[in-house]
Each structure stands twice: as C-alpha cells, then as structure tokens.
Amino acid sequence: MSPIREAVKSDLNGIVETSRSLGYPMREITDVENDLAELIRSERDRLWVFTVDAAVVGWLHAYVSIRAASTAFVEICGLAVHPEHQRQGIGSALASHASDWSAEKGLKLRVRCSSVREDTHELYRKQGFSTVKTQLVFDKNL
Fold first, then answer.
1. Could you read off the pLDDT of 31-53 as tens digits, one per residue?
2. DSSP for residue 69
3. Global pTM?
4. E-assigned strand segments in the chain
C-alpha cells in the first residue's frame, strides 16, 4: 500500500502536529477541523498525507485555480514534512504525486514558496520546477 493517500478526518492531529513543528501559525483546533472537512469535500482541492506506520508525517495541499479557461493550473499551496522525517524523500514523493494529479488534468503545476525556505527551493528545483518570478510583500500597520 502506498504511503500517500488523500487525507481523512482522523488525520487532523497528525496534520496539526506536522504543521506546528515547522512553525506554521495555528488557529483554534475547531477551525482547522472545519477547514479539513471542507478540503475533503472539495472538488478542486486535494490534501494528501504521507504516513509512516499509520502516522501522518507529511502533507501536501493542492488546488485547481481557475482564473479563466485558458489560465487554469494546479497550485501547491502547502507542503510540510515533520522534521524527524525530513531528507527521506517524503516531500519529493508528495510533490511528484501532485505533479501526476496535475498531469492527469492536463494542467501545469505551480508553487509559491517563501524566499527564506532555501531547502524547499532545492526540493522544487529537483522536481523540475523553475523560478518564474520573485516578489516582495509589504505590510503597513495602521
């Protein structure tokens, strides 16, 4: 059996633990639970988990972005692998899985990644992604 599968409600704690271990900001658990239920129901979103001995140690969220019929694409909008399981090919396996799903749909695959996550940049480059744009984000506290 493949260690990658679509997420189910009972994966909540593993997803939260993996996310917290990487410093992702976490909301109330009930909000995360509601988000997970919505993703599971969605036709355009996929949330895959990678399991080791039935425990969630990584996840990837992708969705079909439809801006216009000619510019639809799949976007990876989240990928996390628990630090104890990094550098074992889990992130690459999840990215490959998303790539296969995108190819089945006949759509290109896109990912946006924080400029400070240089290890992640290398993971995506090894997966065949290339940089098409860099940008800065500015906030103004009012």
1. 888 899 999 999 999 999 999 99
2. G
3. 0.84
4. 4-6, 45-52, 55-65, 73-81, 109-111
Buried b (16+ CB within 10 A) or exposed e, 110-142: ebeeeeeeeebbebbeebebeeeeeeeeeeeee
Q: What integer best gives the mean pLDDT of the chain?
A: 88
- Determine contact, residues 60/98, Cβ cutoff 8 Å: yes
Q: In what order do the strands lie in the sheet with 45-52?
A: 4-6, 45-52, 55-65, 73-81, 109-111
Instruction: Give yes or no for residue 58 having a pLDDT over 90.
Output: yes
| 89 close to 125: Cβ distance less than 8 angstroms | no
Rounded-to-integer distance, Cα 85 and Cα 65, Å: 30
Query: Minimal CA–CA distance to 102: which of 141, 46, 49?
Result: 46
Where do the domains of the chain lie, and which CATH numbers do they carry?
4-126 (3.40.630.30)
HSE at residue 6, side-chain half, CA atoms within 13 A, is 11
